[in-house]
Amino acid sequence: MSQLSARLDRAQPYALGLFRIVVGLLFLCHGAASLFGVLGGAVGGGTVPTGSWPGWYAAVIQLVGGALVLVGLGTRAAAFIASGSMAYAYFKVHQPMSLFPLENGGEASAMFCWALLLLVFTGPGALALDGLFSSRGPARRERHETVTV
């Protein structure tokens, strides 16, 4: 059983990176649908009116935040802002209709909020641009770990 755990531990950064990529892509798609009318458009079809509160601003956060999370650039900051926007969406739009997400249509907002919040604490995982610009990128991190072990 310890061999399985060791293999899973080695794969963890890649699984986290894949999770980040999927969450970022899905979040970006929501923003693109609302802003550009693609993929079925905003709720009810079409686009959200430019500058409308909170729909247009939420869509911009979804598009930009989703793109940043997708490529892993400024992941923690982007995920923090995006998670907060989804918490706002849940509590201001969905929760007043009913407490539970299944009853108020807020499943996507709740899931995005928690998935993005997880990325705030875990970081981007593997395959992220953050690693290229970090002073402790993958190569330097490995050297540091071998010295201190």
Descriptive account of the structure:
- By secondary structure, the chain is mostly helical.
- The protein has 7 helices and no strands.
- The chain is globular and about 50 Å long.
- The protein has helices at 2-36, 55-71, 75-94, 101-104, 107-122, 130-133, 138-148.
- Helix 1 packs antiparallel against helix 2, helix 2 packs antiparallel against helix 3 and helix 3 packs antiparallel against helix 5.
Show the helix and strand layout.
Blueprint lengths: L1 H35 L18 H17 L3 H20 L6 H4 L2 H16 L7 H4 L4 H11 L1
Helix pairs in contact: 1-2, 1-5, 2-3, 3-5
**Outline type:** globular
Class computed from helices, strands and strand pairing: mainly alpha
Helix content: over 70%
Termini, distance in Å?
A: 25 Å
* Main beta-sheet annotation: none
Order of helices and strands: HHHHHHH
Percentage of residues in DSSP E strands? under 5%
Low-confidence stretches: 139-149
Mean pLDDT: 88
Number of helices: 7
SS elements, strand count: 0
Radius of gyration, in Å, reads 18 Å
Task: Using brief descriptors, characterize the structure shown.
mainly alpha; single chain
Compact description:
With about 150 residues, the chain is mainly α.
